[in-house]
Design goal:
- Two copies of one chain form a homodimer.
- With 350 residues, chain A is of the alpha/beta class.
- Helices cover 45% and strands 18% of the residues of chain A.
- In chain A, α1 (9-16) crosses α3 and α2 packs across α3 (35-48).
- At the A-B interface, β1, α4, β2, α8 and α13 of A face β1, α4, β2, α8 and α13 of B.
- β1 (2-3) of chain A pairs antiparallel with β2 (63-64) of chain B, so a sheet runs across the interface.
- The structure holds a DNA duplex (30 and 30 nucleotides).
DNA sequence: ATTATTTCCGTTACCGTGCACGATGATTAA
DNA sequence: TTAATCATCGTGCACGGTAACGGAAATAAT
């Protein structure tokens, strides 16, 4: 440990001939200080190089900041579960420095659920909020209220076009589609590609796969202009039918050996892939769900593109904490996360 | 913010009919407490779920933990510079919670320099140390002294076989070589590979490339048993000669289009690669040095394997901080970092 | 001129722990 | 029996900062 001849507010009080109460007032801009005194204090702070003692401050305030996290409800092995576990992890570490965390989860297919969850969140009166938005308008309603109450918030995953948020952490969706094209083709021209898609619920508001598909299309246009792209739709609610659907399709297109999905559900087609092995096939999907990782390590899936959802939330929570505790703004407002390329050879330590 | 009905030592003092002095004594095992009192206090702590207030404790002790970091001295765009910048970043964030950080840098080719730097480090009397070891024996001398003084330490990058360190954060070297094989060959059998090597200084103690090469060899043995592996040595101290060396070699082996280096200096051969373009060539190297990244984005280098040195040190410092402040042991002792695969399509956001 | 407001600032009681100091009663030595 | 020793414990100040409270002086209102 280190002995610290720290400069305290007493020092600068003595130096200015004022009391520590006044010093505290200018430190926190609480008003009620004459211009002259304020200037003297500021000067002394500069000269002596005063830095507040975080411990003493936190102790005296005897308050714990609360960070609320608003994410979609999730099934066991899903993208949002990865995010949630990331929340728990960083909740632990910031809990150590005296910051509490609270999850709020809404049904991403139910606007009402989102609304009521927002209300609950506001009731908890958090000092900061992490938002994974799904419903454009309702989110705006929330952020307006947060603004009114002067509560900072950050977005993760996706974000409204313009917004007064503190920061945003997410994946570059278009680019991830582009990268996906490179991984699927291995950089070589390709004749046929099958895109497996999920019939979206009509209530679904935001769809990241649209941007990914766009990036993918552009890659293919540039590198394999003659490639035929086919689409097959499957229904995650009827997993039994998936194998049949795929088998039927491949009956007509036996030559297709490049398969891609732009959502996190590549694991849905793994049973079919396993029962129809082809060593030359290439399969690319997204996100490090457990089921996906297993398929990757068994060689069924060629590559996954992952975005470290846990790190996304960690950074989001960290940025929020720094702002709440120390009023420190994040270095960048828009933070695009690195896209991790996972293969069977580097999956082990992810 | 949230009001916290925290349990304090007063509460457990009142509950046991003792004074806070006594409670403090059992909390810190300072002796001078009867068996009966001690038991009563322990019981009350259990029942009420007492958790010490870190802020108050740190404030009262009026000490700031100091974390010392011991790494090799480094040139501008080198691996250890990446690590150093990671240190600065996390120093900032833990600085916010009142933890200081201090660099100590030694000449990795000079044992004496390591020794004197260790001495300086010990003089600073840190509460925890992060070590990037290069000299086996001298490192042991340091850790023994740290043990004596009861100072926790963690290793990064590499570590001695057996040691009482708190944790270790590093890259799985052998596996990274194996992965490297897959990236270089694209999973397809290959006829010829050129390994560009650096003539090591004879004083160099640890050489991560040995393990990487081993992993690479095994991959090739399994996937391209007939492949011819050639070695060419270059000297980083005479960059002017590199182009000549390579040109001379390729005169005799024009058919070789797979090139790999197992250290972070792939950028050294970039000038030659640029002046002898070949669209079908594949080049793989290690680490996200600026020069390497540029070559990657220009398409000169096919892939890089990076290990996020900044995250390595962040995790190391974080583990140390948690232990120093809260006596919390890290979840795992050996932490192998994820190997990042970088291509021109995902390099942008790294 | 007197009273009522402001403006500005010092005082003070905390926040929860750490630790030195001294007090108390019990035990032992003289 | 008296003095000295010891085990055991309570008291009180310190750490640096926060913010409520109230007082003095300056200004405004009557």
């Amino acid at each position: 440990m280190v002995q610290n001849g720290q400069i305290t507010i007493h020092d600068i009080a003595r130096r200015t001939g004022l009391s520590k109460g006044t010093v505290d007032r200018v430190l926190h801009d609480r008003g009620g200080v004459s211009r002259k005194s304020k200037e003297k204090v500021m000067a002394a702070i500069q000269e002596l190089g005063y830095e507040p003692n975080v411990y003493a401050s936190l102790l005296a305030k005897k308050e714990k900041p609360l960070i609320a996290v608003l994410i979609p409800k999730h099934e066991p092995d899903s993208f949002w579960e990865l995010a949630a576990s990331g929340i728990d992890k960083s909740a632990e570490s910031i809990g150590a420095i005296g910051v509490d965390t609270l999850h709020f989860e809404y049904d991403q297919y139910d606007l009402d659920s989102f609304r009521t969850t927002c209300a609950k969140l506001l009731d908890a009166n958090p000092s900061g909020v992490v938002i994974a938005p799904m419903f454009q308008e309702a989110t705006e309603g929330l952020t307006q209220e947060l603004h009114k109450r002067d509560i900072p918030y950050v977005f993760i995953d996706s974000k409204p076009e313009t917004d007064g948020c503190l920061a945003y952490f997410g994946m570059p969706l278009y680019k991830s589609g582009y990268l996906c094209g490179d991984l699927l083709t291995g950089g070589q021209p390709v004749q046929n590609v099958l895109i497996v898609r999920i019939r979206r619920d009509r209530y679904q508001q935001s769809d990241p796969t649209i941007n990914r598909r766009a990036g993918f299309m552009d890659y293919m246009l540039e590198h394999s202009p003659d490639c035929v792209l086919s689409n097959v739709f499957i229904d995650p609610n009827e997993p039994d039918k998936i194998e049949g659907t795929l088998s039927a399709w491949f009956e007509d297109h036996p030559q297709v050996r490049h398969i891609v999905m732009f959502n996190s559900r590549i694991h849905l087609i793994v049973p079919w892939l396993e029962s129809h092995p082809d060593p030359k096939r290439r399969v690319v999907g997204f996100d490090n769900l457990k089921a996906n990782m297993e398929a990757l390590q068994r060689g069924i899936v060629t590559s996954l593109i992952a975005q470290r959802p846990d790190e996304q939330v960690r950074l989001a929570i960290e940025a929020l904490t720094e702002f709440i505790l120390f009023r420190k703004l994040p270095a960048r407002k828009d933070n695009y996360m690195h896209m991790d390329i996972l293969t069977r050879y580097n999956a082990e330590y992810y």
